[in-house]
Amino acid sequence: MFYSPPRINNYRPDIDGLRAIAILTVVFFHTFPEFFPGGFIGVDIFFVISGFLISGIIFKKLEKENFSFTDFYFRRIRRIFPALIFLLIGITIAGCILLAPPELRLLVRQICWGAFFGENIYLIKSTGGYWDQATEMMPLMHLWTLAVEEQFYIFYPLICVILFKIKKLVSALVILTLLSFFSVYFFKDNTILNFYSLHTRFWELACGGLLAFYINKNNFLSILSLAKQNLSSFSGILLVTIGLVITNEQDKFPGIITLFPVLGTLLILIGQNSIFNKSILSHRLVVFVGLISYTWYLWHWPPLAFSRIILGGDIPGFGARIILIFVGLLIAIISYFFVENPIRKMKATLRLSISLSVILFFVFASGTTIRLMKGLPQRLDKAQQLVLESADNNFPHTTDYCLEKYGKGSLDAYSFCYAEKGKTAEIAILGDSHGRHLLRGLFAGTSKGIVFLGMKGTPAIKNVFEVTAEPNYIKKGQGQSMLDKAFDKILNDPKIKTVILASRWNLFLNSPGLYSWLNDNRVEPNDYTKREEALKLFMTDWLKQLQTHKKNVMIILNTPEFPFTVYSCYRPIFSLDKCGVSQKEATAATSKVNEIIKGISSKFTNVEVIDPTNIVCKNGYCSLVNNGKAVYRDENHLTSYGSTLIAPAILEKLKD
Questions:
Q1: Which of 140, 134, 127, 104 is nearest to 567 (CA)?
Q2: Interval 520-538: pLDDT, tens
Q3: 536 within 8 A of 603, measured Cβ to Cβ
Q4: Helices 293-310 and 318-335: crossing angle, nearest 10°?
Q5: Closest listed residue to residue 35, CA positions, set 322, 327, 236
Q6: Is the alpha carbon torsion for 199, 201, 206, 207 positive or negative?
Q7: Locate the SGNH domain: which residues (predicted)?
């Protein structure tokens, strides 16, 4: 990506200047998205430039009948691999120093995919999209663009050679370009696939290729007047600027709006001798930025992503982000002068290509080894290792027995349904993952039959459900959540004497993804003013139903929530002594909803309330660690050990 053309007589410094504009827009977008929301179109500028330059090289050699696949790929390896290898090794070392074993395992997955130019495929398979917060904490997320280009380079030369031999090069490329462009709309419902895929980005690279063919074939620029080149360059600048201003993450991208940076870049390339191209884009400083654009692109994002990982997802302050820009730039300059340039001056031979490929393979193998070794927990001190071993994320698997007995016809793969085969349930737990994290302690602490029914992100109240991008979470056209039918089975089962309601209740007040009904009027996801009223109404109604059916009810209030990632406790540079906060901080997000639920529950004689805060926190301090074991597996979910701390209080109430 962002490759400088060979230093031959037809070298165009203005193209490196155009690269400079592209890299600056990307850097400022990633660093200050609040000020440059459309800066990600810099990637589209790079795509067009790459298609233009690579196609120019291929077409000229085809015309001279001296195109060589081995020479083409040897040159690509010489140009791409050194800086990439330096990046992947550097990121691996940084990860080993800074990250907890679970974080390092995620990082080396990216390293392995990046080493084989498959980062775009990895992101399609494992993320919620380019603007997903989890994606923003992936240090190698940005390698998706490099993956798209390398996938393009694998197939494109072969396509060009075949089409050139049958004399259908231009017409076929035009058809492929149009097919690629319109495929964006064929896959419009899958925005993640659209954004990262070669087939939806091919047209951008191919547009550059078609321009290269036209210029080379017709000697177009030599006969185009200076006035027309000035007009072309100015028009291109205008289109790119409009694209920067009007584009944001809400737009379907790529799509029609992508034409602004693509056509704008083509017009700037046509204006080779224009005032702007000659005086601005060809300025030595601008050209230098363009020359290091590949390595700067590789290094601009990791410092930002690592900082967000360390801060638990928070965005660094303005001043810190300025510093991080220069950190990435400094490493990029070092990489350019001491890694990229020396190897670039070597002859592109089979020996060099094999050597670089072997090194890249060893980077991949190292990443795989680290992953198989569970993120190298040996880096931690013994106390950290013991705590980490107890921070499990295991639950009883969803059972066919449970689904057959309680969830048939109402629950699906997105739901939770756990029960012990052969036991008649006397206790039903209803809720979301905050109900599920109690199971280990409860299943182990009583011989009574227990069934748990729940769904991710959905409180244990009827008529409330989560709305997400995945429509399977909701029952279309119905006013009930998918759980309501299952809840009705619990209500009407005379063998079930006790119902435990356990949820992350504060989501009801704060989550943007919940729908509910208030007096037959839907409470929209962002209508927070009605959330408290809706909670009181629905919980009161739900408790009345349980009372009518003579159920004993126990409500487990919100567990305390930590304002930092628990992984920080398992980082080599961190101390277990700091794995906690004051009770005031830990309950800042939960105290309001807990008080509301206490107030509602006090009106019912059949309802008991248990507050995990009094168990997890001691003397005004809440710790993630207790007796050398992890209490929490993330910022708000208990481990199996944590559930054994809460379970005795619940089971004691069940004896009463």
A1: 104
A2: 555 565 566 778 888 888 8
A3: no
A4: 140
A5: 322
A6: positive
A7: 415-651
Task: Find the distance separating the first CA and the last CA of the chain, reported in whole Å.
Answer: 69
Please state whether the predicted TM-score (pTM) of the whole model is above 0.70. Answer: yes
Q: Which two tokens stand for residue 23?
A: 């890299």
Instruction: Report the residue count for the chain.
Output: 656
> Does the CA dihedral 163-168-170-175 come out positive or negative?
negative
Residue 209 C-alpha from the chain's centroid: 31
The arrangement of secondary structure in 400-561+588-616+639-655, i.e. its CATH architecture, is: 3-Layer(aba) Sandwich (3.40)
505 DSSP assignment: T
Using a 10 angstrom Cβ sphere, with 0-12 exposed, 13-18 middle and 19 or more buried, the burial of residue 548 is exposed
Arithmetic mean of pLDDT over the chain: 88
Residue spans of the domains in the chain: they are 13-77+130-321, 400-561+588-616+639-655
3-class SS at 453?
strand
Q: Tokens standing for 537? A: 């109404």
Q: What is the pLDDT of residues 210-248, one digit of tens each?
A: 999 988 877 777 778 899 999 999 999 999 999 999 988
Inter-CA distances, 158 with 62, 198, 401, Å: 11, 16, 55
Q: Is 254 left (phi over 0), alpha (psi -120 to 50) or beta?
A: beta
Taking only the tens place, the pLDDT of each residue in 109-152 is 999 999 999 999 999 998 877 777 788 899 999 999 999 999 99
| pLDDT attached to residue 397 | 56
pLDDT at 14 over 50: yes
- Percent with pLDDT over 70 in the chain: 90
Q: What is the widest separation between alpha-carbon atoms in the chain?
A: 95
Q: Quickly count: other Cβ atoms within 10 Å of residue 513's Cβ.
A: 15
Which residue in this structure is represented by tokens 């060589």?
68
